[in-house]
Amino acid sequence: MLTTRAPAKINLTLHILGRREDGYHALESLVAFTGGGDTLALAPGPALSLDISGPTAPAAGAGDDNLVLRAARNLAARVEGLTLGAFRLEKRLPVAAGIGGGSSDAAAALRLLARAHGLAADDSRLIDAACATGSDVSICLLARARMMRGAGEALGPPIRLPILPAVLVNPGVAVATAPVFAALGLAKGARSAGAAHPEIGDGASAEDLLVALAKGRNDLEDAACLQAPVIVDALALLRATRGCRLARMSGSGATCFALFATRQAAVRAARDIRAQCPQWWVKTAALR
Ligand SMILES: C[C@@](CO)(OP(=O)(O)O)[C@H](O)COP(=O)(O)OP(=O)(O)OC[C@H]1O[C@@H](n2ccc(N)nc2=O)[C@H](O)[C@@H]1O
Ligand SMILES: Nc1ncnc2c1ncn2[C@@H]1O[C@H](COP(=O)(O)OP(=O)(O)O)[C@@H](O)[C@H]1O
């Protein structure tokens, strides 16, 4: 049995540059990852199957359209004679939450199949299968902090970030990605205004990184807040916690994150938010 983790993806910034002729939005995003997340195991064998358990398994579903199965089929279509196998997914990340849980599961499936077959991490068939599965899947393959551009397929080199103590909050509403992009109202070929993405230095200090991140934004935040107004509350609660240096939504929402100077400050903030909103998903994380 082969196993791997599928961590959450956090868009520390998410700038929308315009809408391409293919309908997808051109973006620029500094992406980081948590530890933990979902766990995926593979027992290699001839038949493809998926067994799913864990607190958010019902929301993800074990059907044919599960991203684990889609990723496996996309790789099988590109690698002749690929042996698939039985996947077992322990699903803990909230679903339709802006943290790419499904994309990370798909990338984890590709990593396991690559391991089982001795495919290199930069094998173009692996990367093609990732892109065919979803815009966020290729960045989740390596799951290291880096810039993401294009519609998500153009990746910069890994960036060494200082470890960022964070709190992640999901207020319990599923937010589908496509309607949030659509609410931007950009026609095909349109470009959007907005200040350029801040320069992110490799190996920057936490202080320099926080200053740079503060100059960035998530351009999907307003559209997501209109669809799920509770996101406004989540952001306000995070911003009101002691020691919060920056609070922002990740991806198309509804998960929001706050960054702190120390792990203790993050732990205290998480405790305060849990006390106020016991139904919400609240996690501390070290982003990297
Ligand atoms: C917004 C982001 C930011 O990282 O994350 P999430 O909120 O999904 O986590 C991603 O761009 C989402 O990636 P992913 O969730 O893989 O998107 P896909 O399945 O490829 O696309 C779902 C839908 O979102 C829209 N879409 C997605 C990516 C993109 N660059 N432009 C788009 O317009 C399209 O309408 C597409 O049909
Ligand atoms: N393994 C999976 N985990 C989560 N969602 C999945 C999975 N497979 C398919 N999905 C579907 O993909 C959609 C996006 O889910 P997810 O990746 O959690 O969103 P987001 O990228 O916004 O966090 C959901 O509608 C969900 O039903």
TrEMBL record:
Domain of life: Bacteria
Record-annotated GHMP kinase N-terminal domain positions: 66-142
GO terms for MF: 4-(cytidine 5'-diphospho)-2-C-methyl-D-erythritol kinase activity
Positions contributing to ATP binding: P94, V95, A96, A97, G98, I99, G100, G101, G102, S103, S104
Keyword Cell inner membrane among UniProt keywords: no
Residues covered by the GHMP kinase C-terminal domain: 209-278
One Pfam family named in its UniProt record: GHMP_kinases_N
Protein name (record): 4-diphosphocytidyl-2-C-methyl-D-erythritol kinase
Organism this protein belongs to: Methylocystis borbori
